[in-house]
Amino acid sequence: MISIAADFECGNAKHIRQIAIDRFRLEVIGDKPTYCYYFCFDVRNDGPASAVTVEVWPDSRFGPEGFVVSLPTTVWVASRGDGRFRPLDRERVRNTEEPLLIRLNLKANETIRVTNAWPARYSDTQDALRRLADERGDRCEAFTIGESVQGRDITGIRTGAPGKPRILCVAGQHAVEFSGTWGMLGIADFITSLVPDAVALRERIQVEVLPAVNPDGNAAGRNAFNAEGFDMYRSFGEDPAAEAPEAHESRLLWDMLVKDRPALWMNIHAFVGWRENGEYPYDGWYEVVDPVFENSNRARQYQALCDTMRLETDGMSTHGRANVHRENTMCYQMARRLGIPSVFYELNVATAGPHGAAKRAIHVFKRAVHTLLNSK
After folding, report:
1. Which of 174, 204, 262, 311 is the most buried (most CB within 10 A)?
2. In sequence order, what are the residues at sequence separation of 6 or more whose Cβ sits closer than 8 angstroms to the Cβ of residue 375?
3. Percentage helix, strand, coil, to 5, in the chain?
4. Which residues touch 273 (CB under 8 Å, ≥6 apart)?
């Protein structure tokens, strides 16, 4: 007997039904048309070895816009026995149009987890941060900026020299963008390590890493929103002039920025697939393009950071140019109101799991910090 379920941490699928003896149909659970692509479900086989085809459709409330743009993409699979994901063989996936068709061969009594984004579960992220704090207590500490709407700790790692330029590194505003969280965990690992470059940097900067700032959305398998139904990236919603962001977790971050302004805000997001993209690895980045910095030295420093992203990272590999932060985003408003420069990088989850995301994020971090410390 074959069955499909998504009632687990980071799971995402609805309207699951069997349409033939060896065929199932389901929809993703989207948040809005442009965030309507993520799926993560288990296929369980309680009988002898069997083949099954799964049709994955976009959320019927929003249509195919966000879903189809993400195709083609990588479909990741993991046997629940080992937990490590691998790309499903391309010949087993028709992923150029809706529906996405996935063909699986299941062993007797096997359960396979299927997803288009290698999950970085909130619970695992918390465990990883606790291990770092426990094993490297001589060089870092765990901290929290408060609790999410549903009472989950928003935890980070702090290291480096107090009083030195402070770098605040954030990921997980859009909970499904797991490669951002994997990237931030890589940065936390690197900057607390005994790698000589990391040891030297800890004497020159203070670093705070928050890998999962939307834990409720993460646990629920949301595409973009927090538990209140807000998009944390577009923090100021429909009113860019609002005094504070609309989402609870965004207000916690904003209060932190206002109270103690960092020298640099680094934010890693992600997206899926490569239909409209240029060349591998299909990464991207965003910039604040309006002249919003009142301090000319800070404006020049920000331009140097933008040049660094353009010339020394893979951010160019999507469209060959930066996307633009709108006025309702936190990056725009922290630049305009607080004079804080940002590095906003996108890792493509179709080309990065935990290892790939960590390596690319560490590279971006090192190049950005080098520019920050050496720009005039």
Report:
1. 174
2. 300, 301, 304, 305
3. 30, 25, 45
4. 37, 69, 70, 71, 72, 73, 282, 348, 350
Share of the chain above pLDDT 70, in %: 99
What is the C-alpha to C-alpha distance for residues 309 and 315, in angstroms, rounded to an integer? 6
Q: What is the dihedral of CA 70, 312, 359, 219, to 10 degrees?
A: -40
3-state class (DSSP) for residue 351: coil
Secondary structure (DSSP) of 203-256: TT-EEEEES-S-HHHHHHT-SSB-TTS-BSSSTTTT-TT-SS-SSHHHHHHHHH
Q: Identify the bridge partners of residue 348 per DSSP, sorted by sequence position.
A: 271
Nearest to 353 by CA among 365, 345, 361, 344: 361
Residue 67's SS3 state is helix
Residue 170: alpha-carbon gap to chain centroid: 9
pLDDT for 82 equals: 66
> What pTM was computed for the model?
0.96
pLDDT, the chain, mean: 95
Residue 62's φ and ψ, nearest 5 degrees, are: -120, -15
Residues of the chain with CATH 3.40.630.10: 122-374
pLDDT 10s digits, 270-329: 999 988 788 999 999 999 988 788 889 999 999 999 999 999 999 999 888 999 999 999
Phi, psi torsion values for 48, nearest 5 degrees? -70, 170
Our CA dihedral for 228, 233, 235, 239, rounded to 10 degrees, sits at -110
CATH 2.60.40.3120 matches 2-115 = yes
CA pair distance 43, 108, nearest whole angstrom: 12
Taking the C-alpha atoms of residue 269 and residue 364, their distance in angstroms, rounded to an integer, is 13
As a residue count, the chain comes to 376
CATH 2.60.40.3120 maps onto the chain at 2-115
The single-letter DSSP state of residue 311 is H
Give the tens place of pLDDT for each residue, 103-125: 999 999 999 999 999 999 999 99
Superfamily classification of domain 122-374: Zn peptidases (3.40.630.10)
Question: Which residue type, as a one-letter code, is found at position 36?
Answer: C
